[in-house]
Amino acid sequence: MEIVPLSDAVGAEIRGVDLRETLTTEMLDQIEAAFHDYAIVVLRDQDITLEQQKTFALHFGELGSRARPGKKPNELDEYGEHVMLVTNVRENGKAIGSLPDGEMTFHADTAYFEFPSKATMLYAMELPSWGGNTLFSNGYAAAEHLPEDMKRRLDGKKAMQVYEYGTTLKTKEKYDRENFPYYAHPIFRKHPATGRSALFVSELMTEEIVGMSKEESDEILAQLFEHQKQSEFVYEHEWKVGDLVMWDNRCTNHARTDFPRDERRMLRRLTIQDTTPVVEGAVPYTQAAAE
Questions:
Q1: I need a labelling partner for 272 at 20 to 30 A (CA). Which of 40, 91, 248, 288 fits?
Q2: Taking the model in full, what pTM does it have?
């Protein structure tokens, strides 16, 4: 096994692993260590079934449900409770999956729940000729490189996370909290495995900083959203068929670039459920500020 960093920002490629084979405990431990060290791991040239993908995912925790509040698992499509097809493929004019077209704004999966997903695993099966890349922003680095006065203003603060299902771009100021889930989480989130603090807000899902005036909250969030997008924090993954990417949802945000709507794109998504409560992290002051 070889672990190769993907960028200066975040992520690593793991080479020499075939997910059709039974992985040893040592190999799995190395993959999990790389996952914690790099937040994103990429395994290329995989040719796996859904069951093989599930087997690999289960090494890292329980599979997350995609059943929405008020919707029973048996009311989902043929792929079941745990599997989401991220695809623009349509049959009889109806999309067979989710999030079919266009770009998608930065977000962390299911941040609007009390227990957001621990990780997301996406496997590429069909891709367009261009676009549909996934951008990953390093939440640790984004937190550490905030101006020191901003860190002090955000110390101990929570942000309200809300999401209207199926939305890829936030085109209105507020979502409908009567019909969609919402939850307030610490802006600086402590990672249970690494102990590091990550910036846990996102342009798509964060609506307000709790306890601040609307004007102050809007101003600060706009700054945070732009801050997260800076190139030094971001890795852009250009997908190839057979790529399997697993990212740590607790310390990264991700977004999607546009792609041709008349070309097929299909990826298979599993999430890994987190059972650890979201905990407030320490303000990540720089060493110079601490001195």
A1: 91
A2: 0.93
